[in-house]
Specification:
28% strand; alpha+beta
């Protein structure tokens, strides 16, 4: 049985499935089923070698779509607006997460692809698409995601089921820290991006990102696919990081999706290790520090503590009246 842990990906990203299909250059087989191409590249030869048996094979999705795998040369993603795998892997500094990159110019859903082919790739594998038109959101809705949006899914495993619901908090915190890290490296001003509980990212009162975690249970482990959507260069339908940045500094300053993703995995790997070894309590302070409703939360806690303090002063005989 599949369990949906978080459902924050439905940040209204654009047009209908049919319109996206018409725009995308998608081939079809003799039965009329759509065929998509995914390019694989690794941080080192270890990751590339691990998937050599998959090269040229077609992996099917439950909707009938076929996914063909190929090794990616550094020029394959050269189209304007496409994700640059070489730049991303050069910036990546992790031990496990994000080291095997699966990139496609267009896919139905990165989340669906990894969920239905979880065991085909090493844990920590990331799948990213320039455009997807069946992105997962609340209540099983499909959402089109346009160029400019950073859309990716990656895999991991956990053993403690009680900790799984907290994973979405760790992911949102890692993305907040990644945005801050890239901003600092590029001397950009700090952007007020906050976490709206439980798994959305907001700026200026508008949703700019979200997290989706789905899991299946097998052999005493939770197989988890984490999906993230972040508006980087697409100002519609809400706003995006580039628009927020340009409001502050003017000009054409912008974020690179490749740098954001590499920074995200660096932050996530660090936070995930703390989370697994010490529990979410070790990250709570940082999470609440970046919470959109932090002021309301703080006021509520103060009122509760004040009420508790005053309650203790009331004689026992009066407390029930």
């Amino acid at each position: 049985m599949e369990k949906v842990v978080g459902d924050g990906l439905n940040h209204g990203l654009g047009s209908s499935r049919e319109a996206a299909m018409r725009r995308a250059d998608i081939s079809r087989d003799g039965n009329g089923d759509a065929k998509f191409l995914i390019f694989m590249s690794g941080k080192s030869s270890t990751e590339t070698e691990s998937t050599k048996d998959l090269i040229g094979r077609e992996l099917k999705l439950s909707n009938g779509s076929a996914i063909k795998l190929a090794i990616q040369s550094h020029d394959d993603a050269a189209q304007n607006g496409s994700f640059q795998g070489k730049l991303y892997l050069e910036r990546l500094e992790t031990v496990q997460f994000g080291r095997l990159l699966l990139w496609s110019p267009h896919l139905p859903s990165t989340q669906t692809f990894l969920s239905e082919n979880f065991r085909a790739f090493a844990l920590g594998t990331v799948c990213i698409a320039d455009v997807q038109f069946q992105g997962k959101g609340r209540a099983g809705n499909s959402w089109a995601s346009p160029l400019g949006c950073l859309m990716f899914s990656f895999t991991l495993q956990m053993e403690n089921g009680r900790m799984v619901p907290f994973l979405q908090y760790v992911v949102t915190l890692a993305m907040i820290e990644a945005i801050a890290n890239v901003s600092s490296e590029k001397d950009f001003p700090s952007l007020e991006v906050k976490i709206k509980w439980p798994n959305d990212l907001y700026a200026n009162g508008l949703k700019i990102g979200g997290v989706l975690c789905t899991s299946t249970y097998s052999a005493n482990k939770f197989n988890i696919v984490v999906g993230v959507g972040l508006n980087v260069g697409n100002s519609n339908p809400t706003t995006c990081l580039d628009a927020l940045l340009q409001e502050l500094v003017g000009g054409t300053s912008s974020f690179r999706k490749e740098e954001l993703l590499a920074s995200f995995f660096g932050k996530f790997e660090e936070l995930f290790n703390i989370f697994i070894n010490q529990g979410f309590s070790a990250l709570e302070a940082s999470y609440y520090q970046n919470w959109l409703h932090r002021s309301i939360f703080h006021l509520t806690v103060v009122k509760m503590l004040s009420w508790k303090k005053n309650w203790r002063k009331v004689p026992q005989c009066q407390r029930s009246h």
